[in-house]
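Posted in: Structural Biology > Protein-Ligand Complexes

Title: Requesting predicted complex, zinc ion in pocket

I'd be grateful if someone could produce the 3D structure tokens for the following input. Sequence and ligand are given below.
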Amino acid sequence: MPSGDTPLLIRNADIVNSDSRTRADILVDGGVITRIAPDLDAPPGAEVIDASGKLAFPGFIDPHVHIYLPFMATFAKDTHETASIAALMGGTTTFIEMCCPSRLDDALDGYQLWKSKAEGNSACDYSFHMSVTKFGTDTPAQLCEIVADGITSFKIFLAYKGFFGVDDAEMYQTLMLARELGVIVTAHCENAELVSRLQQRLLAEGKTGPEWHEPSRPESVEAEGTHRFGTFLENTGARGYVVHLSCEPALRAALAAQARGVSLAVESVIPHFLLDESHAARPGVEGMKHVMSPPLRNPRNHNVLWTALEQGWIDTVGTDHCPFDTAQKLLGKDRFTEIPNGIPGIEERVNLLYTYGVKRGTLTLSRFVDAASTRAAKLFGLYPRKGVIAEGSDADIVIYDPDHKSVISAATQHTNNDYNGFEGMELDGRPSIVTVRGKIQVRDGQFVGDRGRGRLLRREPQHDER
Ligand code: URP
Ligand code: ZN
Ligand code: ZN
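-- Reply #1 --
Done. Output follows.
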């Protein structure tokens, strides 16, 4: 169907896909890529973009964000408009949001609510992971309806006891249903009981500041959750995906499950590659700003995560974008257990991964594209519509300037928050043009697009080989 948008001819594109690199022109019409070849003629009325000296990437996909989120006595700060514009400014053209009704809520009502929040309000495309936060008699029928609407993944929390968290019986039932429906299950893997006991013990000892958040959820607690999730996958035959894996013991548990033949993909999120527990130990509210779960870890884990990413043992890099402002963080000034958990990053993920992975590290460009775009598209039923620059794919294209220098600052961010967890970090590149289905949404570092362009993405034929 014609989109009514101006056709685009991108000349001299250095096209980087997860499995190829070619120099060619890219013709875009009707929202899709219609031709990739050298020396194409511009159709009448086309806008011609010269991409010389730039890289052309498939639109990036953030597989783990929170936008509408009632959580820990408050609500995350972004709207779909602010988060999607921030995403686009950073080169992300699709995000997958956690749809998170609590145990007290009805799942289907929750799904409709999350959809209504996003519809018409997102500047980029989106989908949802549907959280299963309890498993009652009406759950299978409700989840079938949600899957029939095109959703390809569920989410379970082994943490957050009594709010989002499921017990082992509920995890088993969810995994059995997911296997039947051909749906992948994403999981937050921390042992809820241990977290709760350790929190109470630390508070009783007068350890109330944000520096005690990490000791209340140590690496072993995450490793146990990851191992248990893997064991349940092994015994149900479901496909799984660990979200925000943060440390070596959890990685070992995931790799051990894979070695037993379990279908388990691994996501890590950008804060865990670059920030560490010392950020949460900063005095006062500065520490609180760096409280997320799993917590920022001992920095010895950084090398482990970067190596695992390079090797492809970590499949995807997301953000777990979850903005709470300074006043909200201060809800936990007397007890670290009341600090709303979350660090934003939807705007910074791609540039940080490019800068500290590719430019200043040893991550290859192809693995960068794979981890930040292609693999998520394959795992979550969006490929080859998304995640690749190819004829017939959606024209979500990032023309990336690898030489642009900037410094991250809350003063210039688009996320709706009054601080930035990565404040002061240097960046070595940025998207100069970003298109969503052929429409230029970002040009020269400015949002110039249509605030309601985003569409809910529905399942493509499964393409989940890794
Ligand atoms: O700290 C975090 N990660 N907040 C958001 C909720 C979650 O666990 O993903
Ligand atoms: Zn989580
Ligand atoms: Zn999350």
